[in-house]
Structure formats: structure tokens, C-alpha cells
Design a protein that fits this description.
With 347 residues, the protein is α+β, with helices and mostly antiparallel strands. 34% of the residues lie in helices and 23% in strands. The strands form three sheets. The chain has a six-stranded mixed beta sheet with strand order 8-10-7-11-9-12.
């Protein structure tokens, strides 16, 4: 075909460029594959073998995006970590059920495909999959002329994990006196960016390169720090201790997410000051004149994952987590709900 007469390309969709993009990322994607991944890129669907290692397997799935954190990537023309955020937001949601992540798919959509940008995004997704010990089995790259502003794209992810039915973590065994442990976040992760961007770039008129005394790195670099992936942390706890419940702290913060795993008869008493809050949160609260309630409901406030364990195992669980690559804190305990309206009380 004479490409000069290719009307689809003239309309803004370059099929051959898309095909070359797939060829360029093929080796990266294959690096996440193990023997359970059947076939390769280019088929209509991805195939994954569960094998014979499960007695009563339950599949666990989740889908998510990165939200307006993408705007930071556009502003800074930095795209190599945003894929880690995508994986983190998806796999952190399924591991709280006790699931082991199996595989991930992504959806990358843009007005005009810039292969070097797309390859950076995929490189981040691959790195996230490595951290989560799951395979990137496929995805979709869509070129949609006129649908997005120049230089922008959207990103979504889909993950599937597996857990034995009798090993599902649903919080039902949580009881009064159970210990609540918080695992440190790396910053905002992927939530609250609409408010953070408004404060920093609209109200304060800062730029991504602006250096603020309270922050260890320029504003843009601080905000673009990727989401922490907690697969290894929860796996370690499940292996040696009793994991009664877990909550991924995303939009809605501690006060909205922790109740999702608590029995109706229980409430969580969270001790303020029991963990160090990264300076980006204090900066946003002061600069935006935000109340404490709004901070706790908008951001993770320094804790990206909260787990609940029996009180007698709290010290050993903390020691195990803190000798690994994670930082954990005893932040509270479970108490009787009684007539208290709030499922989470900050004390």
C-alpha cells in the first residue's frame, strides 16, 4: 500500500507506528513472563495457566488508573515511573484479600502515539510487575486523534490474583484488642493530586522545579515519587504470622478505607503521632490551609497500607517488617464499636 494515500494515517492513526511500538516493547514485556504465560503479544487475548497447585482457588481482580498524577508526568515530561503507580494501585487492592498477583494488563490511550513516551510508560509498568511478582500479559494501545490534548494520554490497569478459598482475608476474625500496624507510604502515592496540584501550581504559582525548604527534593520530583507496592510485605506477614485484615489506603484516606475491613461490632482507635508524617503532607496542609479532617480524608497521610494482627503477634510482625525493605509502626488497636458512630477514631 502507498502510505501517501493511506487515509487512516492522514486522519491521525498510524497503524505501522503502533505495530513498531509493540515490537519495541516486546522484550520488556516478555521479561515479566514465567511458564504460566502461554503465547505472546499479538493475539486477541492473553492466556495464563493456573497449574495444579490449588485445591479450591478463587480469582481476585481489580482495575484502577493513576488519576491526575498523570498531569505531573506531562508537565515534567517524565514517564518512566507512572507505570509503577498503575501496578501499585491495582495489586495493592487485591493483596488485602490475601491474593497473590498473577498477571496485569494495561490500557494506554493517546491522541498521537509518541513511541518513546509509550516505551517509558511500559518500562514503568514492567518494573511495577517485577516488584509485584506478576506478569504483564498484554494490553491495548489506542491512538485516538482529537480525543486528548497534544502530549497527553490516559492509563488504566487491570490485574488478576489468586487465593485459596479458605485463606481469603475478609476481616471477619478481627476482634477487640487486635493490633493495628501502619506501613509507611512513599508520599501521596496516586491520590489527592487534584487538590495538591491546585495548591502548588495554581495557588502558590510554583513550578515542578521549585525547591521548598520543607521538602528534600523539588516539588515535581516529590510529587512524582511512585506508589509503594506492598506485595512482599503482606506475603511475609501471611507466611509467618496471622493477618486478620488489611486496608489499602487510597482515596478517602485512613478514615474511609480502614472501616471496609472492620466487623460492624468493631472500631479502630488510631493514635495520632504514632508514625512520622512525610513533609509533603505538612507542606500541603499549611499551604492549603487544610483542616486535619480534610487531610485524613483526602490523603494517605504517610500510611499506604494498614494491617491488623493479633496483639500477641504485633511485636514480631513489626520486627519482621522493619528488618525487610518496609517501615512499619504500631498505630492503634481495635475496640468495641458500642454506640460510637465513627468506625475510626483518631485519638
Amino acid at each position: 500500500m502507498d502510505c501517501k494515500n493511506d487515509r487512516y494515517r492522514q486522519a491521525g492513526v498510524d497503524i505501522e507506528k503502533g505495530n513498531q511500538f509493540v515490537r519495541n516493547i516486546k522484550d520488556m514485556v516478555h521479561s515479566t513472563h514465567g511458564p504460566s504465560v502461554l503465547g505472546g503479544l499479538g493475539g486477541f487475548a492473553a492466556l495464563y495457566s493456573l497449574g495444579q497447585n490449588y485445591q479450591n482457588p478463587v480469582l481476585v481482580s481489580s482495575t484502577d488508573g493513576v488519576g491526575t498524577k498523570l498531569k505531573l508526568a506531562f508537565m515534567m515530561d517524565s514517564h518512566d515511573t507512572i507505570g509503577i503507580d498503575l501496578v501499585g494501585m491495582c495489586v495493592n487492592d487485591i493483596i488485602v484479600c490475601g491474593a497473590k498477583p498473577l498477571f496485569m494488563l494495561d490500557y494506554f490511550s493517546t491522541g498521537k502515539l509518541e513511541p518513546h513516551v509509550g516505551q517509558q510508560v511500559v518500562a514503568g509498568i514492567v518494573e511495577g510487575c517485577r516488584q509485584a511478582h506478576c506478569a504483564l500479559v498484554g494490553g491495548e494501545t489506542a491512538e485516538m486523534p482529537g480525543f486528548y490534548p497534544p502530549g497527553e494520554y490516559d492509563l488504566a490497569g487491570f490485574t488478576v490474583g489468586i487465593v485459596e478459598k479458605n485463606s481469603i482475608i475478609d476481616g471477619a476474625s478481627i476482634s477487640n484488642g487486635s493490633a493495628i500496624i501502619g506501613l509507611a507510604s512513599t508520599g501521596l502515592h496516586s491520590n489527592g493530586y487534584s487538590l495538591a496540584r491546585q495548591i502548588i501550581f495554581d495557588d502558590l504559582r510554583l513550578t515542578p522545579d521549585s525547591q521548598v525548604d520543607d521538602l528534600p527534593a523539588p516539588v515535581g520530583q516529590t510529587l512524582l515519587t511512585p506508589t509503594r507496592i506492598y506485595v512482599d510485605a503482606l506475603s511475609a506477614v501471611q507466611k509467618d504470622y496471622t493477618l486478620l485484615g488489611a486496608a489499602h489506603i487510597t482515596g478517602g484516606g485512613i478514615v474511609e478505607n480502614l472501616p471496609r475491613v472492620l466487623p460492624k461490632a468493631c472500631r479502630a482507635l488510631i493514635k495520632k503521632g504514632s508514625w512520622p508524617v512525610p513533609p509533603i503532607f505538612s507542606f500541603l496542609q499549611h499551604a492549603g490551609k487544610l483542616s486535619a479532617d480534610e487531610m485524613y480524608r483526602t490523603f494517605n497521610y504517610g500510611l499506604g497500607m494498614i494491617i491488623i494482627v493479633p496483639a500477641v503477634e504485633a511485636s514480631d510482625t513489626l520486627a519482621r517488617l522493619n528488618t525487610s525493605d518496609y517501615t512499619a509502626f504500631l498505630i492503634g488497636e481495635v475496640a468495641a464499636r458500642g454506640k460510637h458512630k465513627a468506625a475510626v477514631e483518631l485519638i
